[in-house]
Design a protein that fits this description.
Layout lengths: L1 H10 L9 H5 L5 E4 L6 H10 L3 E4 L7 H13 L4 E3 L7 H10 L7 E7 L16 H18 L3 E8 L12 E7 L4 E7 L9 E7 L2 E6 L3 E5 L4 E5 L7 H14 L7 H20 L3 E2 L2
Helix pairs in contact: 3-4, 4-8, 6-8
Length: about 290
């Protein structure tokens, strides 16, 4: 509507439309960024990729295994590139963690705390057709733990605070990922807190070295001999750099900075977690 038109004018955008097919059909457009509601992602992704255009898709890419397989097949057959908005992997603190702990002679243990807070009761994320907050949000964190561990999950377990009394939705949960290489990752995601506390806090342990990342603004590495601090003036979750790297890949004819295998793994990990919640038992990953 009117706000979209005003925003377009301020940014110098030449097209304002409620029909995304106009963008797919336009031969002058070769990169599409999609940030629509979750239930539309897979359908739009398939259409964009079949048109051989590059696609930056906000997470999640798909809400089911069948949708995921169909999108990835379209991506394999497309001359366009696919990148999903798992931006945290490209933040300066995660780059530091990969450099410092990437060659750890021991397995890694990771704890990721997410103080997500509640949403408005009428928020669209609570619509079952949109997948809920576990599927819609937690794939961010399964992707990041997979990226840090540099391995494939072996077993996934998820438990949630049950719905009832003052709890209206399954949105406060603990997720544990056991990796084939012996590493272990845990996500504590909570809608029970408040925003006086940092939203995201990550601890990584390995071979006598500990790294903490506080809301992607400050980070510390504490080793038995060497310690290092990385504090930023403002939060860096990797948004700008991720877009920049994708544009460079498109411009220079390089592959997407995110492989289809990584995208597939992040989503299948959260699908396994949801299955664990349903069955009340760990799910062996395959």
């Amino acid at each position: 509507g009117l706000p979209a038109k005003k925003l377009a004018e301020s940014l110098g955008a030449s097209i304002v439309t409620s029909d995304y097919h106009e963008l797919i059909r336009d031969p002058e457009i070769n990169l599409i960024i999609c940030a629509t509601r979750h239930s539309t992602h897979a359908r739009i992704a398939i259409e964009v990729l079949k048109a051989n255009k590059n696609l930056y898709m906000e997470k999640p890419l798909a809400l089911s295994g069948d949708e995921l397989r169909e999108v990835l097949q379209a991506a394999r057959e497309s001359s366009g590139r696919l990148l999903v908005g798992f931006n945290r992997r490209i933040s300066s603190h995660i780059s530091m963690a990969r450099t410092t702990l990437g060659s750890s002679p021991t397995h890694l243990q990771m704890m990721y705390s997410v103080n997500a807070g509640p949403l408005e009761p009428s928020h669209w994320s609570y619509d079952p057709r949109e997948g809920g907050r576990i599927l819609g949000e937690a794939c961010h964190f399964t992707h990041l733990l997979n990226y840090i561990a540099r391995d494939v999950p072996k077993r996934v377990t998820l438990s949630a605070i049950p719905v009832g009394r003052a709890i209206a939705h399954e949105e406060s949960f603990s997720l544990t990922i056991e990796y084939a290489n012996g590493s272990l990752g845990t996500v504590i995601y909570s809608a029970l807190g408040n925003f006086k506390f940092p939203k995201e806090y990550l601890e990584i342990y390995g071979a006598g070295t500990i790294m903490t990342i506080d809301n992607f603004k400050s980070g510390k590495i504490m080793g038995s001999v060497h310690s290092e601090t990385k504090n930023l003036w403002k939060q860096d979750k990797g948004y700008a750099r991720e877009i920049q790297e994708f544009i460079v890949a498109v411009r220079d004819g390089k592959p997407s900075p995110m492989s289809l295998e990584e995208i597939d793994l992040a989503h299948r990990t959260i699908f396994a977690a949801i299955e664990s919640l349903k069955t009340g038992a760990p799910v062996d990953f395959s």
